[in-house]
């Protein structure tokens, strides 16, 4: 596994990259990304790196999000979820990508959880996120987003 904060940073980064690409800043999409990026680690105490760390679990959960929260949230959810699987696949342990059909673990096995490389990824993702966030400040979409956010707080 990768540090939880690295997964969260990756979730935020996927959110901002996709938002910039779509020219759309949506609060629900942000929640979907932040919720999905650490989610696979809920299998920690059961069958870690298997039960939720595979493409089928991702698609099943994404279908639920699609059904209950719509297309946009499902897209953000899937990307952030996938970022988790992708990051974990870079670590020594790998991930059971095709579980339950195969227990074989796939991955590049480059580094360990909490290692210097993990921290490096965390800091670079956070830095990229912050830079894009600052850039986003000047956009029209961001003004809309702030309005939406203020309305949410006023409720
Ligand atoms: Zn994980």
Q: What's the overall geometry?
A: globular
- How many domains, as an integer? 1
Overall number of strands? 0
Question: Which distinct ligands sit in these coordinates?
Answer: zinc ion
- Rg estimate, integer Å: 16 Å
Largest beta-sheet characterization: none
- Helix content percent band: 55-70%
Helix/strand-derived category reads: mainly alpha
Figure out the total of helices.
5
Low-confidence stretches: none
| Portion in strands | under 5%
- Average per-residue pLDDT, rounded, comes to 92
* Distance between the first and last residues' Cα: 38 Å
Task: Please explain how this structure is put together.
The protein is an all-alpha fold and 155 residues long. The chain has one domain. The protein contains five helices and no strands. It has helices spanning 4-22, 27-36, 55-89, 116-136, 140-154. Helix 1 runs antiparallel to helix 2. The longest helix is centred in the middle third of the chain and has 35 residues, at 55-89. The mean pLDDT is 92. The structure holds zinc ion (ZN). Zinc ion (ZN) is lined by residues 1, 40-41, 53, 84, 88.
The gist of it:
The protein is 65% helix and 0% strand.
Features:
globular; 5 helices; mainly alpha; 0% strand; single chain; binds zinc ion; 155 residues
């Amino acid at each position: 596994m990768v540090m939880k904060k690295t997964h969260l940073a990756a979730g935020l980064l996927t959110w901002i990259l996709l938002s910039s690409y779509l020219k759309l800043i949506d609060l629900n999409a942000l929640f979907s990304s932040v919720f999905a990026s650490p989610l696979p680690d809920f299998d920690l105490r059961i069958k870690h790196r298997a039960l939720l760390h595979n493409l089928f679990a991702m698609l099943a959960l994404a279908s639920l999000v699609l059904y209950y929260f719509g297309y946009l949230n499902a897209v953000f959810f899937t990307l952030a979820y996938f970022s988790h699987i992708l990051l974990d696949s870079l670590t020594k342990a790998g991930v059971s990508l095709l579980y339950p059909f195969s227990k074989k673990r796939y991955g590049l096995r480059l580094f360990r959880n909490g290692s210097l490389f993990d921290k490096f990824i965390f800091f670079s993702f956070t830095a990229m996120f912050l830079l894009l966030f600052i850039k986003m400040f000047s956009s029209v979409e961001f003004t809309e987003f702030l309005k939406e956010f203020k309305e949410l707080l006023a409720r």
